[in-house]
Amino acid sequence: MLHDDMEKAQERIRDKVERQIPQDLNELSAKADNIKHQMNTRIDKEEEERYLAIRELQEAFSKLQTQAAIGGRDSSATVREASSHNEVLLPVMNSMRRDVDECKVAIKKLAESIATVKNVLDKKINTEIRQREHDVATINQRINTINTTRDTNRDTTRTAVSDY
User: Fold this and answer.
1) How far apart are CA 139 and CA 126, in angstroms?
2) How do residues 94-118 score in pLDDT, each as one tens digit?
3) Which of the 8 DSSP states describes residue 74?
4) d(CA 52, CA 50)
5) Cβ–Cβ < 8 Å for 103, 53
6) What is the pTM of this model?
């Protein structure tokens, strides 16, 4: 009876070690890969959107500068007109420069934040892997102890039966 119970317990532990824990590790690894893929996709998308926005602002700024420069070469009336136009455009261009600078700073901060998130996730995953490996080693030690105890009990039972 005790022998059967020990074998059943040993079988349950062996099942966990051979099937459940590796399956859990595979699932955890797949989840980590999925999270990394999602983060990389989001980062790439955000980076592309920010790049396009900056490019658009730069093109608009260049266009405004070109228009202001062309306006300054005409007759004196046009020069006065361009001058007043430049007075209107100058604050807009300065505002656009600030926006571009702010976008650059935001992109740098975003990249730093993403790097931090990646590092934290990598550390968590590595910690979880080490913990699972430690758990597997502990279970293997317990199985070995149970096997040794079972073998000792079996030998003792055989000796007692043969002496009887």
Assistant:
1) 20
2) 777 888 888 888 888 888 888 888 8
3) S
4) 5
5) yes
6) 0.42
